[in-house]
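Async update (no meeting this week)

Hi team, since we skipped the sync, here's where things stand on the single-chain job. The sequence we agreed to prioritize is pasted below, unchanged from the tracker. I ran it this morning and attached the output directly underneath so nobody has to dig for it. Comments welcome in thread, and please keep replies under the output.
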Amino acid sequence: MTINEFLEKWGRTMFEAPLAVQLSTSTREEPPELAEIRLAVLDQVRQKSYRSGGRKVFPHDLVCVEMRGLEEGPYAVFAGRFFRTYLEQEIHDALRDAGCRFPENLRVEVRASAGLPQRGENWLSVEVGSQAGTSRPIARLVVREGTANAAEVRLEKARTNIGRVVDVYRAAGLFRRNDLAFAAETEINRSVSREHAHIQFDRATGEYRLFNDRWYPRGEANLAECGTWIVRDGLSYEVHRNARGTKLEHGDEIHFGQAVVVFEAE
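Output:
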């Protein structure tokens, strides 16, 4: 069974059986790709555990899983609540079976991306951290240049998308919805890509990070007119397309092509 077939079957049974039944069925029939994710997560959990007072301890209450280069179908499922719940259940069960103490509020955060990994990057990475002290600061984007669907957008979601249109369609249908869209037909707006960038709140660090989602065909000219960069303290910093993104600071002037927004955080 391929991972696409598995996910299709998974989706059909998602709401037709209790979670425990779904998980037991899934783990018996999981394809190699899903097994690789589960084993990588559990291996990282084991590496970060240690022995204290004659018993193993896993002190972290946050496990961050990041996957890159996913196809459109798996992307939607991996980014959803059910897959996160599945991984949390696997971790909890593995720690209990090993007699390991761990925080009762241990949770998993999954970041799925359709963009291909950069050279030297793995398609799957796992990190651990802490939820403590990561209450989300109030933040927003204020439009300074360009005509958008809103003059200001509060960053309340786990991920905020920015692009040329509201709904982005690919061959399989709706692929992405932009929260801040520069859809009006103006010269400034035409420099914004359909899938230009997104901002994520990193619970492990308490930071907002900006990611460049643009893909440039080799040899494309005038990239400076449609790229992504930040102006901070009078200096310009290009935001490259990679898996880490760029940390945002209050007052950053963000350029999406010729469109400009300001990042404000309290």
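Quick observations from my side:
Residues 81-97 form the longest helix (17 residues).
The first strand starts at residue 50 and ends at 52.
Reply here if anything looks off.
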